[in-house]
């Protein structure tokens, strides 16, 4: 039996939040920061981005080449596993579809799973199907400004339909894999897939 | 969708409040009996779920303050000004009340004896809570009289508080440090220091860290927990001082301070 906390009323969802807030989440207007270690600082002059096929072949872009690709502007809700959700965040970046199409012209093949790798050594795994068809971006602008380092700048993965730890900060590489392999948090007790609507926070959550 | 590392689900359990201890004007420690609790490592947290009479539920995460071997699970909760859950936990909850929690959660911001030292802990405000679990764990795991074991695993806490009255666990920290020459507790008071205060009176900065931290060559295990601006500043300064980024583990709470 679930114990009732008499006298606890809670805040209820504000008007307009109905249907937007996944189970166990609350809306915040701030933009909290969660990182496991110090914020890496990579100068744009040495920053690059790599898409690596399962055979090890890779396509690489410098910062200038990267931001010259076709840009998307997106407005999305984001959901952190630590319970906050933030509605209507505005981002600009390059869709994973665009990157895959560009890489394909250089002979890079995809595979069913993807490992994102970041400065500082952070990794996270995502199925390819969750990154394609307009579902994910490498974002470098937030609001109307360059993405701040503590929020993942110069660029971060943006996969808004999964818990936000999947949206790897400081991302530098996407590697395609034939078999799924857990990333950083996925090896430390967090869920392998991380669907906020099914409240898949921790390993073992259904 | 795949479940490469699926394990047993972390179950919701019913926690019974044994006692509520006042730490400071804004913080309370909840001493809990949690039947079936699987044990934890110092630094981990739990998810708390409150259910209102009409079935509405709210969840939040709180750090565990107790050491793994302590008889009671302890959570220390700070009341947030516009909090939804924390005002209930700090003001309404009484011994005998029950609520749900699940855990332990988190496998990175953890420390136990085999990880070794020196152990350098940097906390701000209620960021002390998971660090206190580490200090308590170290104290209860190393035999009291075994000076050699303690010298091999020295610990330092650098703790930033706004005022002397807002120092959480103030007396216990003083008592532990007084009884253990290998544990140093260094306070900095950022707003209202007592008139006769001899210690630091400013936010933690690079000079303070240089003065208080072990040198990078001694490879201290570093844990930093507190509000985001403090953690950002401390972690950046530690890296500038030469500490390897992977030796600096952080937990941040709250916003960046910049408009979201």
Give a quick summary of the entry:
The complex is a heterodimer of chains A (206) and B (260). Chain A has 206 residues and is mainly β. Helix content of chain A is 7%, strand content 30%.
Describe the structure.
With 206 residues, chain A is mainly beta. Chain A has one domain (47-198): Alpha-Beta Complex (Sulfite Oxidase, Chain A, domain 2), CATH 3.90.420.10. Chain A has helices at residues 63-67, 96-104, and strands at residues 26-27, 48-52, 58-62, 72-79, 84-95, 113-118, 123-127, 137-142, 145-146, 156-158, 171-177. In chain A, strands 1, 4, 5, 8, 9 and 10 form a 6-stranded mixed β-sheet that branches. The mean pLDDT of chain A is 94. Chain B folds into 2 domains: 13-105, Translation factors (Elongation Factor Tu (Ef-tu), domain 3), CATH 2.40.30.10; 113-253, Nucleotide-binding domain of ferredoxin-NADP reductase (FNR) module (Rossmann fold, 3-Layer(aba) Sandwich), CATH 3.40.50.80. Helix content of chain B is 21%, strand content 32%. Chain B has helices at 86-92, 128-141, 147-151, 170-178, 206-212, 228-240, and strands at residues 13-22, 27-33, 45-51, 57-63, 73-78, 98-105, 119-124, 155-163, 183-192, 221-227, 248-253. Chain B has a 6-stranded antiparallel β-sheet. In chain B, a hairpin with a 5-residue loop joins strand 3 (45-51) and strand 4 (57-63). The two termini of chain B are 32 Å apart. Residues 1-5 and 256-260 of chain B have low confidence and may be disordered. At the A-B interface, loops of A face strand 3, strand 4, strand 6, helix 6 and strand 11 of B.
